[in-house]
Design a protein that fits this description.
Elements: H1 30-36, H2 54-63, E1 66-67, H3 79-90, H4 93-99, H5 105-118, H6 123-131, E2 136-141, E3 144-149, H7 151-160, H8 171-180, H9 188-197, H10 205-214, H11 218-227, H12 233-244, H13 251-262, H14 270-279, H15 287-290
Parallel strand pairs: 1-2
Antiparallel strand pairs: 2-3
Helix pairs in contact: 2-3, 4-5, 5-7, 6-7, 6-8, 8-9, 9-11, 10-11, 11-12, 12-13
C-alpha cells in the first residue's frame, strides 16, 4: 500500500487576516459585513419561519456566513456563531429541521449543525438534501475563509464528532461516504477523506471507475491504485501520465502521481517520467522517487 505517499492538497480560497471587534456587543455587526461583503448576496427568507425566530434568522441572514467557534487572529467573538447559539436556544428540533430548507444558505447550514447536535439521526437525510442543493455558503473557520457547497461543512462537522477508531464502523459515516461518490460537486478534499475512511464494496466500483477514468478525479485514481492496482493497471497508468502533463496541478501532488506511476515499474513510461523530471528537477531529491528510477529503466546518465 502507498498510503504514506498520499498527500491531501486543498486548493481552497484562503485569506488570512486580523479580525477587529467593536465594543458594541450587538450581534449584528458592520465590520464583518463591510470587510467581506457577504451581506450584498444575502437572501432573506421568512417563509415558514416562526415569528419568535424571525429576528435571529434575519441577523444570521444579514451576516450571510457560516462561522465556527474558532477565532481569527485578534478576534474576540464570531458574531454569527453567537447568533447561532441564540437560534439553538430558541428553536425546537422540528423548527431547526424546517430551517434546513431556508433559502439563505447560512441559516440552513446553522440549522443543520444545530440539528446534528440535538439528534444525529437526521444527518443523512439533511446531507442528501444539501448534496442536491446548488448554492454555496460563505464559511469562516478561524482565519480560513472559504466558499463551499453546504454538504461539505456538514460532512466535516459530523466527521469531527467521531473518534478516529469510530469512523470506519459508524453506520451514518458509511452512508455519507457512499453518498459522496455520487455527488456532482464534491471537492477533492472531501472525496479524499471519504476514500481514506474505508474500502468500498464491489457494487460501488463502477461509480469509482467513473470518478477516476471519466471525471479524472485524482482521489478516486489513488484509491483504485491502493486497493485495485492490478485490476486497473493500464487505466491507472494512463491517468497518471495525463496528470503529469497538467501544469495546473500543484507540484507536491504531481510528485505523488509520479511516485504512483513509477510503482508500476514499467519501462514504457520512461520517456514521460524523464520529461517530468526535467520539468521538475527538484523531484529527484525525493528518495522515494529516486529509488524507483532504475526499475523504470532510468539510470543516472539519463538525467
Amino acid at each position: 500500500m502507498l498510503f504514506s505517499r498520499v498527500f491531501v492538497i486543498a486548493f481552497t480560497f484562503v485569506i488570512i487576516f486580523s479580525c477587529t471587534q467593536k465594543e458594541n456587543k450587538e450581534v449584528i455587526a458592520d465590520i464583518l459585513v463591510e470587510d467581506l461583503n457577504f451581506s450584498k448576496e444575502a437572501v432573506f427568507d421568512s417563509v415558514q419561519v416562526p415569528h419568535h425566530l424571525r429576528k435571529i434568522v434575519r441577523y444570521i441572514s444579514t451576516l450571510n456566513t457560516y462561522e465556527t467557534e474558532a477565532l481569527a487572529k485578534g478576534g474576540t467573538e464570531n458574531l454569527n456563531f453567537e447568533n447561532a447559539k441564540k437560534l439553538y436556544d430558541q428553536a425546537s428540533e422540528e423548527e431547526l429541521l424546517n430551517l434546513t430548507d431556508n433559502k439563505n444558505n447560512a441559516v440552513a447550514m446553522y440549522a443543520a449543525v444545530g440539528l446534528l447536535e440535538i439528534n444525529p439521526q437526521y444527518v443523512t437525510a439533511v446531507f442528501q438534501k444539501f448534496l442536491n442543493r446548488k448554492g454555496k455558503v460563505h464559511t469562516q473557520n478561524g482565519c480560513i475563509i472559504d466558499y463551499e457547497y453546504l454538504a461539505e461543512p456538514l460532512y466535516q462537522k459530523y466527521f469531527n464528532t467521531l473518534k478516529p477508531e469510530e469512523v470506519r464502523s459508524d453506520i451514518k459515516m458509511q452512508k455519507l461516504d457512499s453518498m459522496l461518490l455520487f455527488a456532482e460537486n464534491a471537492s477533492e478534499l472531501i472525496l479524499t477523506t471519504a476514500f481514506r475512511n474505508r474500502t468500498y464494496s464491489d457494487h460501488l466500483k463502477k461509480q469509482i471507475e467513473k470518478l477516476a477514468f471519466q471525471e479524472h478525479r485524482g482521489s478516486a485514481v489513488l484509491y483504485l491504485s491502493n486497493w485495485h492496482k492490478k485490476e486497473y493497471a493500464q487505466q491507472l497508468q494512463r491517468e497518471y501520465l495525463h496528470f503529469l502533463t497538467n501544469d495546473t496541478i500543484h507540484e507536491i501532488q504531481s510528485r505523488n502521481y509520479l511516485y504512483h506511476l513509477m510503482s508500476f515499474n514499467n519501462p514504457d513510461n520512461k520517456k514521460a517520467i524523464l520529461e517530468y523530471i526535467k520539468k521538475d528537477s527538484a523531484s529527484i531529491d525525493d528518495s522515494g522517487i529516486r529509488l524507483q528510477l532504475e526499475n523504470n529503466g532510468i539510470y543516472p546518465t539519463a538525467y
